[in-house]
């Protein structure tokens, strides 16, 4: 029987991130009837999300509608609420209208990612800003501009100006470091021209519980980042544990209370409610444990990949490149199974890590190639690598023009 004549199996993909989209792009739709259910109707290129918080890159430049990724597949914008394993169906809800429905499947792929975690710190959810979604980036951008405008109002006291212009970042991983770097670029390049009366009042403080920044990078690159931040006047509070966050302040384990109008929280991740309620084996972080073929050990028709999954007996980082590799692998594996072939196990290939550290400087840590670059050369490599990883030609073009526009005209500080 030909591929076109054989009945197609119902493949249900929950999620719209790197893992889900990488799978969707490569799956053989002649053999599978693919349906994607996701809360958002677009794919978000999260590595450039910090750049959107200050206008280096515009919001729509790093998103691509999922319906355009594979128009032949079916897409439904909704939240997956519950999986009925024995009946092989997922109960969903359309968030705007509240309409509930169910989707049947033969094969289920869970690629729902993870949520930002408060680590149990009181007040984080109510008073801090996260940086996980495009709505988060827009909220941060609006807050930054609002603080600048309020501080520039005639009659504002010096203490009030300093409180408004103190930006605190909690978390010294890639997201926290890149956001602090982008914020530094904005404040150094744009504030002197747009807000000359505020020069010398802006302050960025980065809080990290560990003794250094970017602990997953080579030690020489971590040390370089620490030195670069300190030279630029970014205050580093290493080995500092935040124990409480309030409206315009945060408290450390030492009892010290620090005033800051803007607190961006980028420390820790947690499982989504859907993953949390599933009755399957999980690791200490709440991720679903899968075998080397990315299947749940107790249900061979259910796969999990990306940040919501942990491969048994393997240490795979929660990064975009790992999720992309898993999505591509699973597409090949499912295509092989449809052809009667036995797929090999998933093997993660560490292609290295990149991070922007401000002032047109970046890090490139590629251990297998012996590359531990830093500075301007790494910055050019960082930009070229991200440009090639963007999903569509449209995204590549928009991001490239955003970079050129920012270099020529600066960042847009309009408030609307």
Could you outline the blueprint of secondary structure elements for this entry?
Layout: E1 9-14, H1 18-26, E2 32-38, E3 42-44, H2 49-52, E4 63-65, H3 66-69, E5 74-77, E6 79-84, E7 89-93, E8 100-104, E9 107-110, E10 115-116, H4 124-127, E11 129-130, H5 134-151, H6 158-164, E12 166-170, H7 174-189, H8 191-194, E13 203-208, H9 219-231, E14 235-238, E15 242-246, E16 249-252, E17 257-259, E18 262-265, E19 269-270, H10 273-277, E20 288-290, E21 302-304, E22 309-311, H11 320-338, E23 353-358, E24 361-366, E25 371-375, H12 376-389, H13 393-409
Parallel strand pairs: 1-2, 1-9, 2-5, 9-21, 11-18, 12-13, 12-18, 13-14, 20-22
Antiparallel strand pairs: 3-4, 6-7, 7-8, 10-19, 15-16, 16-17, 23-24, 24-25
Quick summary of this structure?
With 416 residues, this protein is α/β, with parallel strands linked by helices. 32% of the residues lie in helices and 25% in strands.
Your description of this structure?
The protein has helices at about 20-25, 50, 65-70, 125, 135-150, 160-165, 175-190, 190-195, 220-230, 275, 320-340, 375-390, 395-410, and strands spanning about 10-15, 30-40, 40-45, 65, 75, 80-85, 90-95, 100-105, 105-110, 115, 130, 165-170, 205-210, 235-240, 240-245, 250, 255-260, 260-265, 270, 290, 300-305, 310, 355-360, 360-365, 370-375. The chain is an alpha/beta fold and about 425 residues long. The strands form 8 sheets. A 5-stranded parallel beta sheet has the order 5-2-1-9-21, with no helix packed on it. The protein has a 5-stranded parallel beta sheet with strand order 11-18-12-13-14. It has a 3-stranded antiparallel beta sheet with strand order 6-7-8. It is built from 13 helices and 25 strands. The chain is globular.
